[in-house]
Each structure stands twice: as C-alpha cells, then as structure tokens.
Amino acid sequence: MSFLEHLEELRWRIIYSLIGIVVGTIIAWIFVDFLIDGLLLLPAKQAHLHLQNLKPFGQLFLYFQVAIIVGFILSIPNFFYQMWKFISPALKSNERRYVTSIVFFSTFCFFCGVVFAYFVMLPLTLKFAAQFGSPSIENNFAIDEYFSIILSVILGAGLVFELPMLSFFLSKIGIITAGLMKKYRRHAIIVIMILAAVLTPGTDPVSQVILAVPLVFLYEISIFVAKISRKKSE
What is the pTM of this model? Predict the structure, then answer.
C-alpha cells in the first residue's frame, strides 16, 4: 500500500471506530438511568457520601457525559478490532490469524481493569475521602467532581491493564525484549508510581497505592509475555 492508501485505510478505521462509539452511546443512553442510579452512584451510597448538583442543567450534561464515556467503553471491542485490522498488513500471514485472539485478550484486559477499579479502587478511595478530616466539617461532594473521579479511575485502570498486550505487540515488532524490561525494572517502578499519581485524581495516596500495586504485577506479567512472544517469533 502507498502512503495515501495507508491514510485512506486509517480514515475508514477511524470512521468505523466512531460509528461503534455512537452505537455504544445510544445503547448507554437507553439504560442511562440504570447506569447512574444502579451502578455509578452505588459506590457513593456505600461510602455514605452526600452528593449535590451545583450547576444549572448540571445533571443533563452529566447524563450526556456518562452516556458518551460508557458508549466508548462498550465499543472497546470494535475499537481494538479496527486498530488491529489497520496494523495487520504489517504482520506476517501466520500472525494475522491471531487478530481475533488479540482483540479478545485486549478487551478482556481492559474490562479486568474496569472491574478492578469499580470493586476495589473506588470503594477504598471513596471511603478514605468520606472519613478523612475533622468531624466538625461536613463533607459534601459536587456531583460533577464525583463522576469525574469515578470515570477517570475506571478509564485509567482499564487502559493500564493493557500493559501486557502492549508488551506483546512491542516485543513482536522487536522494540522491547524481556531482558531489556528486566534491566530497567527499577526505573519502571518509578515510572509506575508517577503514572499512578497522574491517573488517580487529586492527591489521594490510597488510590495511588492501590493502582500502583497491580501495575507492578502487570509489569512482571509483561516481562513473561514479552519472553514468550519473542521465542515464538524466533
């Protein structure tokens, strides 16, 4: 394929990805009441948080925000599929057969991160936020700030759980090796701590540590994945 043909292929893959997000957003909007009251507000109820809306039409924009982000999450399989289909011409013929498996495991890793964030990170983080401080000060949280924390933690955890698949791809094309990752393990841990601080909202040390621990574990898994991937390539 020529350079312009690559650009045309990329354009269509982006269009297909956007179509998937639109479809996912429509599905999310149909169930938006359940998503907000039954799922996203549940951690706040369990942590006994007091939420309030401080902006005119704040809840309307909040509903749109939730529908779009959940729509993106629902379209993740299609997004990964379009991404790997764009990359597949650069792969060998025997490697293209694994595109479906790669899409499945990429989606699986992402949703593992989402589940980990929802059931582990968010309850501990919100409980810490609700109980910290003087008892003389009442903790009332703005609803937009709450959902910003919820959605950023969920998306951030989903993305960082893609580390093993990213390691698999980079080792396949020869950019990294298991030996290189072992050599710079200490540097990687420092980067992981910085990344955990960036991906978690505010300066909450609890959520940073909770995210950093599985990141270190995922890094070790990535070393193993890179080693296996390299052996198969050889």
Answer: 0.78
